[in-house]
Amino acid sequence: MLAPLSWLKEYVDIDVTPQELQDKLFSCGFEVEELYEVGRDIHDVVVGLVTSCEPIPETHLHVCNVDAGKYGSFQVCCGADNVTAGKKFPLALVGAQVIMTAKDHVTVEGVMTIKKGKLRGYDSEGMLCSGVELGVSDDMFPGASYNGLLVLPDDAEVGTDVKPMLGLDDWIFDIAITANRPDCQSIYGIAREVAAVLNKEIKPLDLSFTEDGTEKEGFTVTVDAKDLCPRYIAHYVHDIKIGESPLWMKRRLALVGIGSISNVVDITNYILTELGQPMHAFDASYIEGNAINVRRANNGEKIVTLDEKEFELNDQNLVICDGKKPVALAGIMGGLNSEILDTTTDVMFEAAKFMRDNIRKSSRSLGQASDSSAMYAKGVYEYTTVIAMKRALHLIEELDCGKVSSTHVEVCTGNSIEPRELKVSIEKVNKVLGITVPTDDIIRILTSLDFAPVVNGDELTLMIPAYREDMESYPDVAEEVIRMYGYDHVVSTFMPTAQVTMGGFDLRQRSELKLKRALCGAGAYEGIHYSFFSPSDLDLLRLDENAPERQAIKLINPINVDLSLMRTTLAPQMIRAMARNQKRDLLEGKIYEIGNSFIPKSLPLTEYPDERETLCVGVFGENESFFTLKGFAKIVADTFDLTFTYEPSVKPFLHPYQTADIMCNGVKIGYLGKVSYEIMDDLDMRVPSFVMEIDLRQISEYYGNEQKFEPLPKFAIEKRDFAFVVDKNISCASIEDGIREACKYVTDVKLFDVYEGIQLGPNKRSMAFSVVFTPQNEEFNDEMVEGYVKKILKNLENKLSITLRG
Fold it and tell me: What pLDDT digit, counting tens, does each position of 279-311 carry?
C-alpha cells in the first residue's frame, strides 16, 4: 500500500525523518518494502526568471537570459513555443538531473544530466524544463502536461528549488499490510499506527455536513441478500456541479497512482484511499423505479460495466439493481448505464459492506478486478462504511459541488459498530510474551491504540474499536503490547518442553535418507509433486465411486480445479510424470517420491486428517518389467532387514495379471503392478510403465534395523534346480514359501523360467526354480542333500498338489 508522507502529516504531527519513520513502522510490525522521494530522479532544478528572450534567426529556437537568483544569470537556448520574457520556468542548472523523453516529449526513456552545450553557435548553460521532464502531470501541478515549458506562479521566489512547489519533495512509503490488518489498508489506518508508534495524537476526521431538508420522495432501498450485504447505505445529493477537483485532492490521488476524473468521482476514490472504503456514485436520473435492490443475480442475467465489458452472471454474483435492472456489479464495478457524466445533476452515493469471500470469488470467476474488489477481498468493516458516507458528504460540501439532501437510507442486519468490551488477564498477557511488561507501559500502549484500557488488579478491560475485528483474546492483546513496547525487550528462553541435543537427524529422518540413497543407488531419481491433485486424477485410475481414495478433502479456495483435492494416493501423479517424460521422448527412467497422502477420518472434517508417509516408485522403458519394480520393493526390504511376500491382486488402473499386494509379516503394506493399457492409451504412453506404492508408516517400527553380516560358509554350498507342474492359480510366492519351510538350510530361491504349453494340460504351467542349500556346522554329502530335496517335494505335494515335471 502506498502512503505519501504529506498525506499522513494531515492527521499526525510527524517530527521524525522519513527514514526514522520507516524504522519505527518496521519495529511495530509494518514492513516498508520501499521508501522513495517522489522527485528522486530530479535535482538542481530551480525557479528561473527569463529576463530577455530573442529569436535565433531561421530557427524555432530562442536565446534567453535567465535569472537564477543566488546561482547567477545564465544564457539558455530554448525551443519551446511558450517561452516569454518576464515569465518564470523551471531551470535545470548545469549538472542537474531531469527526466529524458523521446521525440514525442511524452514517452519517458530514462534520466539525463544537463551539460553545457552550444546550439546554432550560441552557448547554452542549462535547460528550461517542461512538466514531463520533471516527472509531473496536470494532477500534480496545473499546466504540467502542456507540450512546452512548465509555467510557474509569478510569486515563485527566483533561485529556489522547484521540488517543494511541484510536490516532488514528498516521500512515498510502500507498506506491506498483513492479512489480519485490513484496517490499515488506508491512509487513515496507517496514520493511526503512526500516531501510536510516535506517541502522538491523531487528528479526527471532519465528518460534518448540513442536510438542506430536500427529500427524494418515495425512494427505497431493499437488501434481499443480507448474507452477502450486511449493511448498505444510500444518500441522495442534488444540484451536482461536475468539474475539476482542487489541486490538493488531485495531487494526493496522483501520489498513490490514481488519476483525477471529476470532483464527484474523485471523492469516491479519495474515500477509498483515505479510509479503505469503496464507494460508488450513481447518476440518480438513470435509477429507474426510484429504488435500489441488492440481490443475487439471476442465472444468465447480463450487465455492461463502466469499462464497456459485458458479463453473463449467475446466482453466486451480487448485483445492485434499480427498480428494473442491474446498475452495478456489487463490490467490483458500476454499470455503464448509471455512470457519472458531465451532464449529471443528481447523485446517489453508495457505501456498503459486502462479504469478502463473495466479492473475491465473483471477481475471479468473471475475470474482472478493480481497486474496489481488491479492497473488499481484503476486508471492509461496517464501522468504516458508516464513517465513509459521512466523510464523502463532508467533501461534497467542502468542494462545493453539490447539496446534501435529507434522504438517507441505511439497511443493516443489526451488527453493532460501537466498541466492544474485552477482558483479559495481565498475567496471561505477560506469560505469552515471556517477560513482564510494566502495567503503566501496557496502559500507555493500549491507550495510544484507542483501546481505552482500565486496570482492576490483574484484570484488564478494553473497549475494542469496531475496526479491529482481529482482537479476540489475550494473545492478540499481547501482540499489540509487544509490537509497540519493542521486540528487543523479548528475552530468548527455552520452551518448557525443550531439550538441548547434539543436533542431527532423528531416527525417521536417518531411515528415510538411507532409503533414498538406496533407491538412488539403483538408478532412480527423486521427484516431488504437489500435495494436491484433481478429481480427474481419481477418474484416471478408474476408481469405483465408493473407493476409499475418492474420500478426499476438498480445498475451500483452491488455486484451480487441478489442485482442488488433498491427495489420497501418489499413484496418479507418478503415472502422469511417466507420461510427461514419454511425450518428451524420454523413453526410459526410474522415479521415486516420498510424500504424504491425506486420509480423512470423516467428511466433512471434524479433526485433522491422517497424514501417511508413502513411497511411490515409477519405472518405464522397453527393457523394464514387473520384476524390475519388484527389485525396488526388495531394496526397501533389504534397507530395513525385512522380507516381503507378494500376493496376486486387482487394481482398476493396473494390468490384471501383473498386479500384486506387498505383504510384510502378514500385513499388507502396499502394491505394485503394470499400468493398464487403457490408461496408457489415455495418456499416450509409448513404453511399458509400472508403479508401486508402499505405506512407510506400516514399516516405521522397523526403522533402525540394520542388515546383519553373515560370514561366508565354511563348507561348500549345494544348488539344485526344480521344474514343477503347477496350477495357474498358484503363485510364485507360495511355492517359495513351501520350499523354504520344508528345509532350514535353504538360503536362496529364484524363479528362472516359466513355460506354458498344451502338453502340460489345461490351466497348467511349468515353473523352474533354483534352490541354494548352505551348510552350517558340517559339510553336506549327497545323501543329506537328497533327503532335503525329498522333504521339499513332499511338502509341496501335500500343501499345493505340486509335482515335478517329467
Answer: 999 999 999 999 999 999 999 999 999 999 999
Q: Give the closest residue to 362 by CA, choosing from 228, 222, 224.
A: 228
Q: Which has the closest alpha carbon to 579: 687, 720, 505, 427?
A: 687
pTM metric for this prediction: 0.69
What percentage of the chain exceeds 70 in pLDDT? Answer: 99
Please state, in angstroms and rounded to a whole number, the distance separating the CA atoms of residues 210 and 208: 7
CA triple 448-449-455, angle to 5 deg: 80
Distance CA 82, CA 67 (A): 17
Cell of 480: 499489540
pLDDT tens-digit readout, 556-590: 888 888 999 999 999 999 999 999 999 999 999 99
156 neighbors 47 (Cβ within 8 angstroms): yes
Nearest to 383 by CA among 353, 417, 413, 351: 417
CB atoms within 10 A of CB 501: 7
User: What pLDDT, on the 0 to 100 scale, is given for residue 501?
Assistant: 75
Q: What is the mean pLDDT of residues 43-55?
A: 95
- The average confidence (pLDDT) of the chain is 92
Phi, psi angles (nearest 5°) of residue 645: -120, 165
Could you give the angle at the alpha carbon of 330 between the alpha carbons of 303 and 178, nearest 5°? 135
CA distance 114 to 44: 10
pLDDT tens for each residue of 715-761: 888 999 999 988 888 888 888 889 989 999 998 888 888 888 888 88
Residue 332: phi and psi, rounded to 5, are -120, -60
Identify the sign of the CA torsion 244, 247, 248, 254. Answer: positive
Cell numbers that stand for 31 in this block:
514492513
Q: Determine the angle formed by the axes of helices 187-198 and 263-275, rounding to 10 degrees.
A: 40
What are the φ and ψ backbone dihedral angles of 70, each rounded to 5 degrees?
-65, -15
Does residue 107 carry a pLDDT above 80?
Answer: no
Site of grid cell 530573442: 54
Residue 329 has what pLDDT? 94
**Residue 757 near residue 688 (C-beta atoms within 8 A):** no
Task: Assign 330 to helix, strand or coil.
Answer: coil
Helices (H), 367-438: 371-378, 382-398, 426-433
Confidence check: pLDDT of 75 > 70: yes
Beta strands in 435-584 (DSSP E): 454-456, 459-464, 525-526, 532-533, 565-566
Backbone angles phi, psi at 707, to 5 degrees: -65, 135
Sequence-distant (≥ 6) Cβ neighbours of residue 262 within 8 angstroms: 242, 243, 244, 245, 340, 342
Q: 10 Å Cβ neighbour count for 310?
A: 9
44 three-class SS: strand
Please give the Cα distance from 235 to 241 (Å, whole number): 17
Residue 105, pLDDT above cutoff 70: no
**Single-letter code of the amino acid located at 62:** H
pLDDT tens for residues 358-391? 999 999 999 999 999 999 999 899 999 999 999 9
CB 529 within 8 A of CB 593: yes
Between β-strands 565-566 and 654-664, what pairing exists: parallel, antiparallel or unpaired?
unpaired
The widest CA-to-CA distance across the chain, in whole angstroms, is 129
Strands 117-119 and 589-599: unpaired
Q: Cα(407)–Cα(219) distance, rounded to whole angstroms?
A: 8
